[in-house]
Amino acid sequence: MTFEYRNKQLHAEDCAIRDLVAAHGTPLYVYSHATIAANWQRFADHWPAPHKLCYAVKANSNLAILNLLASLGAGFDIVSGGELARVLAAGGKAEDVVFSGVGKSRAEMVYALEQNIRCFNVESAAELERLNDVALELGVRAPVSLRVNPDVDAQTHPYIATGLKANKFGIAMKDARGVAERAANLPGIVLCGLDCHIGSQILKVSPFLDAADRMLALIRELREQGIEIDHLDMGGGIGIPYQQEDAADVSGYLQALRKRAEAVGGLTLLLEPGRAIVGNAGVLVTEVEYYKPGVDKNFLLVDAGMNDLIRPALYQAYHAIQPVKQSAEDANLVDVVGPVCETGDFFGHARHLAAQEGDLLAIMNAGAYGFTMSSNYNTRPRAAEIMVAGSDVHVIRQREQLEDLWKGEQLMEKLR
Ligand code: LLP
């Protein structure tokens, strides 16, 4: 365990969170270097070359985290030109980058082609045509994987399920053969793979293997038609326990996948894990501003808000909330809420906590889709981010200053 109590004080590796707050304030994201590295290793152990792991940058795109993962041999799954620029700024290699996303612009295509990325994960026939045009204009050929929607139910929250035919993502199974044929014949395209991504926060292995079976059957069919496919990218989606669920069987999944692919033969496998690498490696630390007894409920008002961590508000996501200092006092039943002017601004309902004004709380498992989904709503500067490695502390993002928030804005010229 990375975040554990020593002498009743919650620590991140060898650092007391209380001390980190004394130096850096709240709200504060704190990440553990050792946890990220261990999570990575859990995948890498079962994924020998030429298979490749492409970390999903959207889960946490801080440069220091991308740099750490690049040093561990990660490739990257990006969904925008901005994420590509981040990866390059962090020392990642373009040749290890796959580019997902339903709405790639021409400018993003040009940029990614110029950088020589490994592959575009193309999500529609229209995108394929556009990419072909852009590549021909540049006098190059674009390496392409087709994202196919395998129509499996990932049994996760509807907002983060992506592999059903009702979703906007990917090319429908029934259209995949036609689009693959087209891709194989376009002069600006080199068709090299197929990919899918069925959703996020999936704890069972079976939906992944169902999807893999469908994708492998399609690869067989395409090969029979003379369309060669060299790689299969199964996307991300492996979940983490947020409230004592059984952890996903990562090694079982990866081994089963390799076995199935070996039976087909001649395939390099790619995965795009995000949450499983960084989710449990970060906490959001916040200070209690007020204890507010209410009519039906009591509230702990804290100084972090939905602008810092939007997952509870957006997905009714559960995050454990722990006191930074363990106390023997009686716990109250409280809703933990932020200062933002929205009823949805909460971190937890009906929690048992003994905290008082001035106490610190840690919102657990906040390493994935925490900071990257944060905003400046209510003109709130975004939190600082700290990376802890043993007893070393690195500020990997400074707290935003108010002036940063209106940079680029200007007053209107005087109206006539
Ligand atoms: N690959 C593709 C094409 C994706 O769309 C995603 C995530 C991933 C990989 C990484 O998935 P992961 O391994 O992290 O599950 N904001 C939501 C999650 C949205 C996921 C979107 N796509 C949340 O906070 O739960």
UniProtKB/TrEMBL annotation:
<comment type="subunit">
    <text>Homodimer.</text>
</comment>
<keyword id="KW-0028">Amino-acid biosynthesis</keyword>
<comment type="pathway">
    <text>Amino-acid biosynthesis; L-lysine biosynthesis via DAP pathway; L-lysine from DL-2,6-diaminopimelate: step 1/1.</text>
</comment>
<feature type="binding site">
    <location>
        <position position="369"/>
    </location>
    <ligand>
        <name>pyridoxal 5'-phosphate</name>
    </ligand>
</feature>
<dbReference type="InterPro" id="IPR002986">
    <property type="entry name" value="DAP_deCOOHase_LysA"/>
</dbReference>
<dbReference type="GO" id="GO:0009089">
    <property type="term" value="P:lysine biosynthetic process via diaminopimelate"/>
</dbReference>
<feature type="binding site">
    <location>
        <position position="311"/>
    </location>
    <ligand>
        <name>substrate</name>
    </ligand>
</feature>
<feature type="binding site">
    <location>
        <begin position="272"/>
        <end position="275"/>
    </location>
    <ligand>
        <name>pyridoxal 5'-phosphate</name>
    </ligand>
</feature>
<dbReference type="InterPro" id="IPR022644">
    <property type="entry name" value="De-COase2_N"/>
</dbReference>
<dbReference type="Pfam" id="PF02784">
    <property type="entry name" value="Orn_Arg_deC_N"/>
</dbReference>
<feature type="binding site">
    <location>
        <position position="315"/>
    </location>
    <ligand>
        <name>substrate</name>
    </ligand>
</feature>
<keyword id="KW-0457">Lysine biosynthesis</keyword>
<feature type="binding site">
    <location>
        <position position="237"/>
    </location>
    <ligand>
        <name>pyridoxal 5'-phosphate</name>
    </ligand>
</feature>
<feature type="active site" description="Proton donor">
    <location>
        <position position="341"/>
    </location>
</feature>
<feature type="binding site">
    <location>
        <position position="369"/>
    </location>
    <ligand>
        <name>substrate</name>
    </ligand>
</feature>
<dbReference type="InterPro" id="IPR022657">
    <property type="entry name" value="De-COase2_CS"/>
</dbReference>
<comment type="similarity">
    <text>Belongs to the Orn/Lys/Arg decarboxylase class-II family. LysA subfamily.</text>
</comment>
<feature type="domain" description="Orn/DAP/Arg decarboxylase 2 N-terminal">
    <location>
        <begin position="34"/>
        <end position="279"/>
    </location>
</feature>
<dbReference type="GO" id="GO:0030170">
    <property type="term" value="F:pyridoxal phosphate binding"/>
</dbReference>
<dbReference type="Pfam" id="PF00278">
    <property type="entry name" value="Orn_DAP_Arg_deC"/>
</dbReference>
<keyword id="KW-0663">Pyridoxal phosphate</keyword>
<dbReference type="InterPro" id="IPR029066">
    <property type="entry name" value="PLP-binding_barrel"/>
</dbReference>
<keyword id="KW-0456">Lyase</keyword>
<feature type="binding site">
    <location>
        <position position="275"/>
    </location>
    <ligand>
        <name>substrate</name>
    </ligand>
</feature>
<dbReference type="InterPro" id="IPR009006">
    <property type="entry name" value="Ala_racemase/Decarboxylase_C"/>
</dbReference>
<dbReference type="InterPro" id="IPR000183">
    <property type="entry name" value="Orn/DAP/Arg_de-COase"/>
</dbReference>
<dbReference type="InterPro" id="IPR022643">
    <property type="entry name" value="De-COase2_C"/>
</dbReference>
<comment type="function">
    <text>Specifically catalyzes the decarboxylation of meso-diaminopimelate (meso-DAP) to L-lysine.</text>
</comment>
<feature type="modified residue" description="N6-(pyridoxal phosphate)lysine">
    <location>
        <position position="58"/>
    </location>
</feature>
<feature type="domain" description="Orn/DAP/Arg decarboxylase 2 C-terminal">
    <location>
        <begin position="29"/>
        <end position="367"/>
    </location>
</feature>
<protein>
    <recommendedName>
        <fullName>Diaminopimelate decarboxylase</fullName>
        <ecNumber>4.1.1.20</ecNumber>
    </recommendedName>
</protein>
<keyword id="KW-0210">Decarboxylase</keyword>
<dbReference type="GO" id="GO:0008836">
    <property type="term" value="F:diaminopimelate decarboxylase activity"/>
</dbReference>
<feature type="binding site">
    <location>
        <position position="342"/>
    </location>
    <ligand>
        <name>substrate</name>
    </ligand>
</feature>
<dbReference type="InterPro" id="IPR022653">
    <property type="entry name" value="De-COase2_pyr-phos_BS"/>
</dbReference>
